[in-house]
Design goal:
Layout (H helix, E strand, L loop, with lengths): L5 E6 L1 H4 L2 H13 L3 E6 L4 H8 L5 E3 L2 E3 L2 H25 L4 E4 L7 E5 L11 E6 L1 H9 L3 E4 L2 E3 L5 E3 L2 H12 L5 E7 L17 E2 L1 H9 L8 H12 L4 E6 L3 H5 L5 E3 L1
Parallel strand pairs: 1-2, 1-11, 2-8, 5-8, 11-13, 12-14
Antiparallel strand pairs: 3-4, 6-7, 9-10, 13-14
Helix pairs in contact: 3-4, 6-8
């Protein structure tokens, strides 16, 4: 690639759900210099559509159980409506973009999750990332917009956590180019107090992370995101940042958010 840096940015569901915040984020994303991959979640739209279709939803520890009917819904919403709306919005901002799911171009292969006590249904854990495909699209100066739907090697679609997809792509691409991974959502960063937006921790290393967990001083939902962040760093990703999607430029410049080191 001509550019010597790749940004892999995951945008959270609460931003996807808010048209104003999403517009602000996409405007900033469109002007960010360099090669870019955006991984998005699904927000609440899949849950709403499932309710409209009278498809019961089951959550365990904040994770969706994906039965066959729910898989149809999340595929339609994530890889269909949301992905194409984001692509269309970026193209309108003169930021040429292409939308993919893991099934497109054999982009992301996964396997059905195996858990000792819970059947998560059609939920996938990533096995491999098609870096050749990603490189070729980036070389065409396209922003790549990735929906969190993957596939196994039998043609089965799988619902896969978007944070994990961002981490796995970052780890794979870091073997080829310098990568900055950004987890952007509605908060200012990793907060010491979830009710205080001014309590963002500027930097977190592994020792502080362990201490925060020991002291129960970190929101439980943030722990998997931080686990992904440290796994990415250990695999060669240069920088991981967590913070406010509506302040994307300042976040990348280190003026706000939490840097993981």
């Amino acid at each position: 690639m001509n550019e010597n840096k790749l940004y892999i940015i995951k945008v959270g569901g609460n931003i996807i759900d808010d048209a104003t915040k999403l517009s602000t984020f996409l405007s900033s994303f469109s002007t960010l210099k360099g090669k870019k991959i955006l991984v998005h979640g699904g927000g609440k739209l899949a849950t709403k559509l499932a309710a409209d279709l009278s498809i019961p939803q089951q959550m365990v520890d904040g994770r969706r159980i994906t039965d066959a009917e729910t898989l149809k819904v999340v595929t339609m919403v994530y890889a269909g409506l949301i992905n194409k709306q984001v692509v269309a919005s970026l193209n309108a901002l003169n930021a040429p973009s292409i939308g993919l799911s893991g099934a497109d171009g054999n982009c992301i292969n996964a396997h059905k999750r195996v858990h000792p006590s819970i059947d998560f249904g059609f939920v996938g854990d990533v096995d491999s990332v098609n870096t050749n495909l990603i490189l070729s699209l980036l070389e065409m100066d396209l922003n790549i917009i990735i929906a969190p739907i993957t596939q196994d090697n039998t043609g089965q679609l799988l619902n896969t956590n978007a944070d994990t997809i961002a981490q796995e792509i970052a780890k794979a691409m870091a073997q080829l180019v310098p990568v900055t991974l950004v987890y952007s959502f509605e908060k200012k960063g990793v907060l010491r107090d979830v009710n205080d937006e001014n309590s963002a921790i500027p930097t977190i290393d592994s020792a502080l992370f362990e201490q925060l967990k020991k002291d129960n001083a970190i929101f439980a939902g943030m722990i998997p995101k931080l686990d992904n962040a440290f796994a990415a760093l250990q695999a060669g990703v240069e920088k991981v940042i967590i913070g406010d999607a509506t302040e994307l430029s300042a976040l990348i410049e280190g003026k706000t958010g939490t840097a993981i080191c």
